[in-house]
Amino acid sequence: MTEHTAGSREKTWQDLIAVADLDPKDVTPVTLGTRELAVFDGVDGIFVSMARCTHGAADLCDGYFDGTRIECPLHQGLFDVRSGAALAAPARVGLRMLQSRIVGGMVQVLV
Ligand code: FES
Predict the structure, then answer these.
(1) Residue ranges per domain, the chain?
(2) CB atoms within 10 A of CB 68
């Protein structure tokens, strides 16, 4: 299945990781091409974002995840993984989230 967005290239759903291979109730780092991603197995479902903190060069996969929020390991910026919203300074810019879905036991992302 493909989706089109005006003014951009065609996006397609791509397999990312099997649900069974996720760290349960935690964050799992996954590389897709040149993208370093964070896959969150949260209380409200599975969410995918870019892994790099929007404040600095930290990898959020090394942070503390409580099921809905990820705390950056470097300066303790806080993000809501359901929306990407930045919740606590010094993080001010929200995470870039990827649209995701589960199909046949696989986490897929629209890229
Ligand atoms: S690098 Fe993440 S809060 Fe500073």
Answers:
(1) 2-110
(2) 16
Residue ranges lining ligand 1, Cβ < 6 Å = 53, 55-56, 58, 72, 74-75, 77, 90-91
Phi, psi at residue 60, to the nearest 5°? Answer: -65, -20
> Distance from the CA of 98 to the center of ligand 1, in angstroms?
20
Q: Which residue has the tokens 């990781």?
A: 17
CA distance 107 to 29: 13
pTM (2 decimals)?
0.91
Report CA(66)–ligand 1 centroid distance (Å).
Answer: 17
Percent of the chain clearing pLDDT 70 (strictly above) = 93
- CATH 3.40.50.970 corresponds to the domain 2-110: no
